[in-house]
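Form 7-S
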Amino acid sequence: MNLLQVRKGQFVYYKNELHKVYSVRPLSRLSIKLFRIKDMEQVNCRADELTLHRPQHLDSLIFQGVRYTLRKDKPAKVDGYILITHPDPGQLDHYTLNEFEKVGELVGDKVYTTLYNTVKPKEFLVLEPGEAPDSKVIDYLDPSLVTAEQLEADRELEEKAVEEAAKLPSVGDIYLNLDNGIKAMVVALVDNEAILGHGERVKSDDLFKSDSWNVIYSTGEEDF
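Output:
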């Protein structure tokens, strides 16, 4: 359905593609700010250009280049993602409708996210990697209007995400600092930082982009 009133966090279709509302400015001509969920591209628009979608169990979507299926029947996993569909935050929490949160720790039936929020099971759906056999793909409102060029762009986006993920460090990887000769193992990953065995914290991207670091053992390659 088309919207007359728009709320921050809503999933909406704009020009047939799935977006999320991240800002509403009532006095502006293009009052709604969106980002496209599959790649975070931002756009401004009007409320009457949008069609609402309420995410639900078994919806499948591309989020930041990776395809997931929303599940209410799967447990959250550390380093995985959840989507907060029924927010009921406590006094110290700071999340709202349809926030994507990364799982940092599981304690009992509660999820502690990397943004220091505590989320109860009734509040979220789990983002399970991949497309489940019985899922419904929701990237487009009307799949019959999707062009071959859009499908190819989606395929390339997913391939790029796989390549980027392969470059990121894992716990157990060993790196050599070419500046001082120190060898160090990755012992923990916190948000976008790798914590090395001798206590140094390095941006994950820097470990493969910087000329100062070289991986000498990778847990992701048996014959490395």
